[in-house]
């Protein structure tokens, strides 16, 4: 009987020693198990009973903290998914205060600060691009304005203001194209008429106007080249006729046939 008591005493002391060690290491579940083993040996022992009550209180507080932490993290994650960044930061800060050793809230706050910095940069780039686009639009530099409005959508996709301006500019450019087409074909009509009448000096002006309206069109350029060739040939023919008259006049003058020489010079 005495040996059994000694064995129980050793088991009790061992359970208390191990329980205290786990308790001090904050492994409360394991400590609780060992203290319960000690109470099976000594039902009225104050130390393990007190520690079990203390552990129950600690675990209850931990469970409450765990729930508050989980709720704060869930709230922060939900707010972040809705892009409510400032509110999400406050939720993560609350979680960090509840469990300072947890790294997740701090990492999420860093992520949000990065998103806010990127959003600020995008907003600044958007504003400056819109400003440049508006300035170009006011001076009717529509191609530059269009490119700038399109660029602004890289910073704020789907933004209504630049989208409406792009539609407006496309309408203006389409109207300008229709007007240019009408002016072009009218210039070509008049130029072709003058060309057929061999009024090349007037015709070339209309072809040049048409070419300025549509630089890529081949017809006015071909006609301008043809007119220059015709005019050059005319000049060469006139020069040849002039030289012929001068040579004839000089010969008549040398032969002292002055009346015919005068007529030849006048003909030149």
Strand content: under 5%
Oligomerization state: single chain
Give the CATH level 1 class of the domain at 1-102.
Answer: Mainly Alpha
Number of helices: 10
Compressed to H and E, one letter per element, the order equals HHHHHHHHHH
**Number of DSSP strands?**
0
Relative helix content: over 70%
Please give the CATH architecture of the domain at 1-102.
Alpha Horseshoe
Quote the CATH topology of the domain at 1-102: Serine Threonine Protein Phosphatase 5, Tetratricopeptide repeat
**Radius of gyration, Cα only, in angstroms?**
50 Å
Describe this structure in words.
With 268 residues, this protein is mostly helical. It has a domain at 1-102: Serine Threonine Protein Phosphatase 5, Tetratricopeptide repeat. It has helices spanning 2-24, 28-41, 46-81, 85-98, 104-138, 142-155, 160-196, 200-213, 218-254, 258-267. Helix 1 (2-24) runs antiparallel to helix 2 (28-41), helix 3 runs antiparallel to helix 4 and helix 8 packs antiparallel against helix 9. The longest helix is centred in the middle third of the chain and has 37 residues, at 160-196. The N and C termini lie far apart (159 Å). The relative contact order is 0.03. The model has no long low-confidence stretch (mean pLDDT 92).
């Amino acid at each position: 009987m005495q040996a059994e008591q000694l064995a129980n005493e050793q088991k009790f002391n061992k359970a208390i020693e191990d329980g205290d060690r786990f308790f001090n290491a904050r492994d409360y579940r394991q400590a609780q198990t060992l203290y319960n083993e000690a109470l099976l040996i000594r039902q009225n022992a104050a130390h393990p009973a007190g520690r079990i009550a203390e552990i129950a209180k600690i675990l209850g507080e931990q469970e409450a903290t765990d729930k508050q932490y989980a709720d704060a993290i869930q709230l922060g994650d939900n707010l972040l998914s809705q892009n409510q960044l400032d509110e999400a930061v406050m939720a993560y800060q609350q979680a960090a205060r509840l469990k300072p050793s947890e790294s997740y809230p701090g990492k999420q706050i860093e992520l949000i600060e990065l998103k806010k910095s990127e959003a600020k940069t995008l907003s600044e780039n958007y504003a400056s691009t819109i400003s440049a686009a508006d300035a170009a639009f006011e001076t009717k530099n529509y191609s530059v304005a269009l490119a700038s409005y399109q660029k602004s959508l890289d910073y704020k996709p789907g933004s209504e203001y630049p989208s409406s301006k792009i539609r407006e500019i496309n309408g203006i450019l389409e109207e300008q194209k229709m007007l240019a087409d009408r002016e072009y074909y009218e210039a070509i009509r008049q130029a072709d008429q003058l060309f057929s009448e061999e009024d090349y000096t007037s015709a070339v002006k209309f072809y040049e106007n048409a070419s300025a309206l549509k630089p890529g069109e081949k017809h006015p350029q071909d006609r301008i080249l043809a007119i220059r060739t015709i005019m050059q040939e005319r000049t060469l023919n006139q020069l040849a006729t002039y030289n012929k008259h001068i040579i004839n006049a000089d010969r008549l003058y040398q032969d002292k046939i002055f009346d015919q020489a005068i007529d030849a010079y006048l003909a030149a």
